[in-house]
Specification:
This protein has a six-stranded parallel beta sheet. A three-stranded parallel beta sheet has the order 3-2-4, sandwiched between helices. Strands 9-10 form a two-stranded antiparallel ribbon. It is globular, with a radius of gyration of 20 Å. The chain is α/β, with parallel strands linked by helices. The chain folds into two domains: 50-134, Rossmann fold (3-Layer(aba) Sandwich); 159-292, Rossmann fold. It starts with 7 loop residues before the first helix and ends with a helix. It contains eleven helices and eleven strands. The longest helix has 21 residues, at 27-47. Bound molecules: NADP nicotinamide-adenine-dinucleotide phosphate. NADP nicotinamide-adenine-dinucleotide phosphate binds at residues 161, 184-187, 189-191, 212-216, 219, 232-235, 253-256, 292-293, 296.
């Protein structure tokens, strides 16, 4: 079986005709480069006696995946030299209590960025929570003001996952101008924003974008036209080899926990792409894990740094 990280040209059972010199879009490596750069900039700020970026994260309840995501964010803060505050709230916290906490953080000058780890418990309005975070501290980029500014091409906090994808494409110098980008998924946190970003008149961008969703009837035909495919639907191994044209760039956003008795944890992480069979067709592809996931955290760190620097 082919291993992730292996150059496909040397190691797979696909017929020679189908081979492409595939390269991995290594999110682990690129996110480390982004974090190293931020560390240097943060050290410089300290030397200049300037404020150090401070991220406040709210974690509600004890959802395993949320615990893991928040722990990685806090760890990244400490690696870079950012301050971080983790606020844990019980699963039965009321909306009012959460809003009160957010207002405290909004008013705290020392806090530059606020994130509330989603999903929220039932009974708490996600929209209300998102809209309560001050746009100047909205490092997740979900506030309607941030989204509106992003759509209009004004300076804004870009949502972390799509921003991370752009950083990855940029790092590898992937040509996007004039390409047909097919985005599968239209959520507010991934599909819709990445479709807007790839359509912008700048690099990475200038794509012609098609956004697909659960009511798209001819998905396979559309995907086959994609020079760049962003799979963000949350359906493990949905994108198959017969949906991808040779030489395509494939970005797999999906993260789904699938039961797996062979793992100590009892689950495996699956992306939205049938990696083993799709990779041999691609010019570039992200692995899962180690692709978009680490880039999301790097992008969040970039946003937190910018939020802090804006106060200078
Ligand atoms: P979501 O809110 O559930 O949205 C999924 C989207 O996919 C929806 O627009 C849905 O269409 C569409 N979809 C579902 N089934 C489909 C199908 N069979 N064909 C075509 N479209 C379909 O999910 P999300 O929050 O965007 O997340 C998507 C995946 O990315 C998840 O696995 C999530 O865990 C992962 N994720 C990863 C990161 C990261 O850092 N790597 C960050 C965020 C999310 P409708 O709109 O018609 O329902």
């Amino acid at each position: 079986m082919m291993r992730k990280g292996e150059n496909i040209i040397f190691g797979c059972h696909f017929p020679r005709l189908y081979l492409c010199p595939m390269k991995l879009l290594d999110g682990k490596l690129v996110s480390q480069a982004v974090k190293d750069r931020l560390k240097t900039q943060t050290d410089e700020r300290m030397l200049q006696g300037k404020k150090v970026p401070h991220l406040a994260a709210i974690l509600i309840g004890n959802n395993g995946a949320s615990e893991t995501y928040v722990a990685s964010k806090v760890k990244s803060c400490s690696e870079i030299g950012f301050k971080s505050t983790l606020i844990r709230l019980d699963a039965d916290v009321t909306e009012q209590e959460l809003l009160f906490k957010l207002n405290e953080l909004n008013e705290d000058f020392d806090v530059d960025g606020i994130l509330v780890q989603l999903p929220l418990p039932k009974g708490i309005s996600e929209q209300k929570i998102i809209e309560t975070i001050l746009p100047s501290k909205d490092v997740d980029g979900f506030h309607p003001e941030s989204v509106g500014r992003m759509v209009q091409g004004l300076p804004a906090f870009y949502p972390a996952t799509p921003y991370g994808i752009l950083l990855l494409l940029e790092h590898y110098g992937i040509e996007t101008k004039g390409k047909h980008a097919v985005v599968i998924g239209r959520s507010n946190i991934v599909g819709r924003p990445i479709s807007i970003m790839l359509n912008k008149n700048e690099y990475p961008g200038n794509c012609t974008v098609t956004v697909c969703h659960s009511h798209t009837p001819n998905l396979k035909e559309i995907c086959l036209q994609g020079d760049i495919i962003i799979a963000a639907l949350g359906r493990p191994e949905f994108l198959k080899a017969d949906m991808v044209k040779h030489g395509a760039v494939v970005v797999d956003v999906g993260i789904t926990r699938v039961a797996d008795d062979s793992k100590k944890s009892g689950f495996a992480i699956k992306g939205d792409v049938d990696f083993e069979n799709v990779a041999p067709l691609c010019s570039y592809i992200t692995p899962v894990p180690g692709g978009v996931g680490p880039m999301t955290i790097a992008a969040l760190m970039m946003n937190t740094f910018k939020a802090c620097a804006a106060k200078d």
